[in-house]
Amino acid sequence: MTTPPFKPVILSASLILFSAILFSVVSPVLFPESHSALASSRSAVLEYKEAKNAYQRLAASARLRKYRKNWIRVINRFRKVYLAHPDDPDIAPKALFMMARCYTGLYGYSRRMSDIQEAAERYQVLVERFPSSRLADDALYEIGQIYKMTGRPSSAIAAWKRLLKDYPNGSHTRLARQRLARMGVRIEKKSTPVVAPARKKEASRSRESGKKADTRGRNKIAIIKDIRYWSDKDYTRVVIHASAPVTIKQGELPADKKRGLPKRFYLDLSPAYKKIGLPEYIKIDNGLLRSVRAAQFKPKTVRVVFDLRKTEKTKVFYLDDPFRIVTDAFGAHYAKKKCSIKPLAKAGTSSKTRSTSTRKGKLSLAQQLGLCVRTIVVDAGHGGKDPGARGPRGTREKDVVLQIAKRLARILKKELGCRVIMTRRSDRYLPLTQRTAIANANKADLFISIHANAAPTRRLHGVETYFLNFALDEDAMRVAARENATSRKRIGELKSILNDILKNSKVSESSRLARKVQYSLVRTLKRRYKNIRNLGVKQAPFFVLIGARMPSILVETSFISNPQEERRLRSPAYQDALARGIARGVIQYIQETQLAYKR
User: Fold this and answer.
1) In sequence order, what DSSP letters do the residues of 383-440 get, joined into one string?
2) What percent of the chain has pLDDT above 90?
3) Is the pTM for the entire model greater than 0.70?
4) What domains appear along the chain, each with residue ranges and CATH number?
């Protein structure tokens, strides 16, 4: 008797079906990470597909395309996908590209320069974060188109030249070459792809060993592009700008009287090249540092030498996105200052206030020493080319926080009689490193940075206050990522520098100041406004607070992405209420310090 030919087939199919069912049940237990990654990947694909469908419905309807709110709604859907999966090498670039495409489409109706600038920024983020994406050359081409359309031909040429150099086989290479030819630009035939063969081999070896290759350019040779400094007689900050991360080696050189050289401190940066045209000698000559010199010390090492004068201490750390090496130099008398401020006239001496400051029986270091506040630096976030977040009605964060900061500065000066310094009084751009440098150079006692919050969903609302430390939750990381203009993954890398910085920073005092400001801010707003949500005091690694030598906080005043709070932020009355709430918190902080000192 022969076996029917179909029976083995049925048996094999049954085994396959049984194996599939068994694996689907067992795999989450045996391989939880793989299962989680797979689920996340599927979620990313589904979310992007839904956002893409929304875009296609918008693009197909002439009626829907007329209204700005419809474009913004689709843009926010792609933004939500990107924020949920910022490191997905497939979905994140697609979401960025579609955000940019939507902003370009919106510009066709609105003719707002801010919309086309938003498009260019999204394309730029795509190129910088995902240079190996198949959309990177498309994004570079579109950047060139935007620059040409907005009257910046030299920038357009630079973008298209970069496309030809980095992506010689890209889908938009021919179009870029044609555009350059029409503009009379001659192009060399030879080009170098963005991923060198050595990097490909390295990635292959990493995959074979089960480890991910570092695709962010950690081994890429950096270009030392610029060196800037901010200085005072007892403090100087020098910031070295590099195109990619480098290894930093510190050292000292003794004075050489025969050659007329003072005591020196140097940094060896590798692998790195010095940019052609970067000055080899930068004169400072302020009593603390004579000068800063940069030279190609070895084939792949740039040495930056600091000629010292009366420098008592130096501190070096780095910041990412973009990569910068920050060097702070302090004089012998930097921290030595006498407290001459008069006691606050409004300092409460009631038993209730007195008991509040010592309720737990423990006084902070500032309270124990009776430290005073003579100088306060108020920092209005963003500014100039950095607009910050935008509200549904187009309100820019940089504008409202400047108004709040100005009001706060006036109130503090009037109430405390102390010196109040603003990092900016107009719509101008300031690097994050310069903001804390201003506070350090002026030997500030407090540093207060003012911002407006934002979120992918318009429903979120409330006020919160931050101090510098590691982020403890996803919301804090999201806010820090937005203010730092970086991804959550890069935020995690800050631990290596924060570990050192936090040893000498005013974490406990910053925390106490943040609690006082948050409590006072919420209380002041609730007296006049409804639906005020207290989001509490949080900690996160904000770049703007790193390196500050005094208690420092960052206040997220309200959500500019929330329609109701956006309207309030535009109101002078609400701006004044915010400023008064922050000021009262600062005054309470100082009062507690003085009360503890008097006891």
Assistant:
1) BTTB---B-TT--BHHHHHHHHHHHHHHHHHHHH-SEEEES-SSS----HHHHHHHHH
2) 35
3) no
4) 31-195 (1.25.40.10), 222-331 (2.60.40.3500), 375-598 (3.40.630.40)
